[in-house]
Amino acid sequence: MRILTGMILFMLMIAPGLAQTAVERASELKTWREQCSDPDADLRAAYVEAAIASGDMAIMRVCVRQSLESDNADIRNLGLRAAIASTDQLLFEVEIPAALAEALDKAGNDKDELNEIGRWHVTQMWNIMRTGLVFVISDADITSGASEWLPLAQMTAPHRNYTGKASVIGDRVTWVGSARLPVTDCRLNLGLVSGPMLEGTFQCANVEPFTVRAPLL
């Protein structure tokens, strides 16, 4: 502990500017956090927009997180559009549909039943997505709330054959597109929840929907 303390003191002696910069930076972020939670909704929105325009990722994260947790619908919408625009990809946790879980439980070790269930599209999709489903985000526009999402189901890199358009309306996100799955025509219906997270359903054609959730920021 003495050695560590001595090293810290030595670094402060030879580089006092570094310590001052850290203090100034902390003060700057604190100021932005206070501004982006201003009780005046219009002023708060202006600060959030300024934070986004700054291009400073730390400042953007501070203000976007504040916005996502706001009790003002317009601020939450702005924060959600900004969060998506500043995110390269989202990793969704996927839950097994209740009907499939029940069928598997009922089948037990019956090989014939399990083989039959294995032919279901929902089972094949679950086997692909059980470890998660990644969407790569591109061409996000903060003003319109539109973006392109490319799912990586059974792929390690995005492919133009499997893509779709996402849009932000209020504190909800909808996506319609295609994925490399047994049923390719799919859609996402998501809502902003505390965390902050996106939570909702992923469904392809008439196959049972999967509950999905992904953290923001």
Radius of gyration: 23 Å
The average pLDDT score comes to 89
Which shape, going by the Cα principal axes? Answer: elongated
* Secondary-structure content class: alpha+beta
Order of helices and strands: HHHHHEHHHEEEEEEE
- Helix percentage range: 40-55%
Strand fraction equals 15-25%
pLDDT under 50 segments (min length 5)? 1-18
The total strand number stands at: 8
How can the largest sheet be summarized? 8 strands, antiparallel, barrel
Helical segment tally? Answer: 8
- CA-CA gap between termini: 35 Å
Spatial ordering of strands, largest sheet: 1-2-3-4-5-6-7-8
Keywords: Signal
Structure, described:
- This protein is α+β, with helices and mostly antiparallel strands and 217 residues long.
- The chain is 46% helix and 25% strand.
- The chain has 8 helices and 8 strands.
- Keywords: Signal.
- Residues 1-19 form the signal peptide.
Notable characteristics:
217 residues, alpha+beta, 8-stranded antiparallel β-barrel, 25% strand, signal
Short description:
The protein is α+β, with helices and mostly antiparallel strands. The protein has eight helices and eight strands.
